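Just scan my protein:

——
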Amino acid sequence: MIGLDQIRELVSPTPSKIVLLVIDGLGGLPHPETGRTELENAKTPNLDRLAREGICGMIDPVGSGITSGSAPGHLALFGYDPLTFIVGRGMLEALGIDFELKAGDVAARGNFCTIDGSGLITDRRAGRLSTQRCSELCQLLDGMNMEGVAILVSPVREHRFVAVFRGEGFLSALGDSDPQREGLSPRDVIAHSPRAEKAASIANEFIAQSRATLADHYPANMVLLRGFAHYPDFPKMSEVFSLKPAAIAPYPMYRGLAKVVGMEVLPTGATVEEQLSAVAEHYNSYDFFFLHVKETDIAGEDGDFARKVMVIEEVDRALPRLIDLDPDVIIVTADHSTPAVLKGHSWHPVPFLLCSKLCRPDGVVEFSERDCVSGALGRFPATDVMPLALANALKLKKFGA
C-alpha cells in the first residue's frame, strides 16, 4: 500500500469528478434454495452495464479472513489504513447527529436491547424500536452524574443512541459491554489501562442504573455500549488527495465518518432518488462524492434475503440519474459483506467495479460476486481504491524518474 505521505506528493488537482457509491453490506452468500447471492439474484441492468464498460474485482476491506466493522471498511475505501487510523463508533454517532462536543468528551454508541429474566440478550436491537420511542427512552437516561462525570444521552436512529461522558479524567480505553451476539449476557465494561479504571466503573454504574430505569419498558429493557472514543485527529482528504469532497449519507454514523476525514456533509432525503438529486444539485461544487446506501446492510443483518434483493434493485433503477451526469469515474462497491444467511457482517471479499473513460474493460458482463472474482483487478485491498480512482481521474502524477 502506498502511504498517505507518498500519495500526497503525487496528486494534482483537476476538474474531473469521482463518485464512490457504497452499497453497505453488498456482498452475500448463496441462498440454499437457488445457489445465488442477493446480488446475483437481483435484476441489475444498469450495474451490469457499468461492469461491462468498466473493470471489476473483489476487495478485502481489512484483510483476508477479517470481518470488518463499518468504520474500518469505509476508512479503507477512503484511502486510510484501517489498522492505523482507528476511531470508535461512539464518536462517529455523535458527529453524525451534530452533537455539540467539548474537548475531552468520550462518546459511546448505544443500543437499546431486550434481555430475558436470566439477563440474557434476546434481541440486540429491541425489535428495531422506532426513533420516536428511542427519543423518549433517551430522556429517561439523559443527565446522570457520577463522580463528577456528566452523562449525556441523545437518540440517533431506531434503537441506536449515543452516550457522551463529560468530565475530567474520563478515558476512552474501555472495552464494550455489547457481546454483539444474542443468547449471551451483556459484558462488564473493562479498563484497557489502569488509568481507565475509574471510567470503567462509571460506565458500568451507568449501565446498571439504566437497566433499573428501563425495567418496565420492554422490549427496550437494557442498554449495550460499544466504541468508546475521543475525537480523532486524521489528515483531511482535501490535504492528502487535493480533492473537494462531499458526502451524501442519510444515516448519522456515516455522516460522522465523513466529517472525520474532512468531507462536507450535504443535506439529503432518505431515498436513493433523493440522494442522487443532491448529487445533481451540488455537482458543480465538488469533485468527489461519497454516496451511502444503508438498507442493504440492515436487510442482511435481519436475515431478509428478499428485502436485500429489493434494495439492490431499487439502487439499480435509480442509477441512470447518476450515469447521465457523466462523472469521469464511477465506483460501486461496499464496506463489507453482510450475507442474509449469516445475519451479520462477514469476512468475504466484496464485489467492486470502476467505470471510467480510461479503464480497460475486462470481459465481466454482470456485476456479481461470481463474475467480479474473474475481473482484471483480481482480489485486492480496499486501500487501493482511492489510488485507482485518482489515477482514472487523471489526478496522479508519475512516480519517480
